[in-house]
Each structure stands twice: as C-alpha cells, then as structure tokens.
Amino acid sequence: MRCSWAENGKQNMIDFHDHEWGKPQHDEQRLFEILSLMTFQAGLQWQLILDRRSVLKQVFNDFDIPSVAAMTEREVEKMIQVERMIANRRKIRAVIQNAQTLNRLHKKKILLEQILWSLTSNQVIDHRWQCAEQIPSQSALSVQFARQLKYYGFTFVGPKNVYAYLETIGVINDHLIGCEWR
C-alpha cells in the first residue's frame, strides 16, 4: 500500500512517491532543485510539476546553482518561449533569486543542507499518521523555517510550501503508517 495521494497519479507520481518523497536529502543541488519545483508548484497541482520536470531541469541547467544565479532577464524571456514550460515570470525570477541567495550563502560557507537539518538536530520528524486527513498543511516548524528562509533572502517560501518541501526532502516523514515506503 502507498500513501493515498500517490495512488491516483500517473506513473511519474508513483515513482516520485516510491523513490523520492520523504527520503532524507542532503545534496545541495538536489535540495535546490526540489525548492525550485516547490516554487513552481505554488497554486498548481504537483502532477503538473512532475509532468514538466524535465523541461524545468532543461531550462534551469539541471538546477546548477551558479548557472541559475547568473541567468539574465533575456534568458527569462527565452524560457517563456520553451514548449511545455510553465511560463510564469515571477516564479522563474524567484528560482533565479533563490539561486543567487544560495550563492551568497555558499560564499559565507553556509549550506542550505546545514540550515535545514539544524532545525531538527539532524533527525527526521516521523509523524506516523494513520490517515491522510491527519496531515497538516503547515506546522510550527514550517512557519519557523519559512521565516528563516525569507530572512536569508529566499522567495516563494510560505509556510505551506515549506511544509511540502520538508516532507519531500525527508526532514518530515509523512508517509502514512500503512505505507510500505515509510
């Protein structure tokens, strides 16, 4: 049995649930990729983001942080024209701004991975929910982390988006208790 939200999706949703969602992540580029996907997900269905993930990876150079941080307004306009691209200039600019913020942090020897995992003393928060209705859309931790990210200069990082991010990268384990991928 899987978590119910993955059961009704396409194969890429099932694969995402089984192989990515809730798996503790420490790779900086991967953490940036997921943060960027969450930026695009705001107001949209996650299935759409997974369907367009390859396009997003292509236009953002596989989410290479320095490369994305150096992107210009001209490149933003080119991205808008790419077939199947989610053509939202605010979200595209947010990803670029977040890469620039990460670059500044990296120059100070601060990693996103360190910020994230220090919130929980490097421990996964395992909620052990029985049913999907128990899972909140945000928590005190996601509110705290959203504030911290905004302080550093990140954008599109509200508490609900951040909660989904923390679930995805495995800081929070919200796989249902009966899910065999816990």
From TrEMBL:
Keyword Ligase: no
Listed Pfam families: Adenine_glyco (PF03352)
Keywords: Metal-binding, Zinc
Coiled-coil spans in chain: none
GO molecular function, a single term: metal ion binding
Domain of life (superkingdom): Bacteria
Example of a GO biological process term: base-excision repair
The keyword Nucleotide-binding is assigned to this record: no
Binding sites annotated in the UniProt record for Zn(2+): C3, H17, H175, C179
Protein name: DNA-3-methyladenine glycosylase 1
Species this chain originates from: Ligilactobacillus araffinosus DSM 20653
Biological classification of the source: Bacteria, Bacillati, Bacillota, Bacilli, Lactobacillales
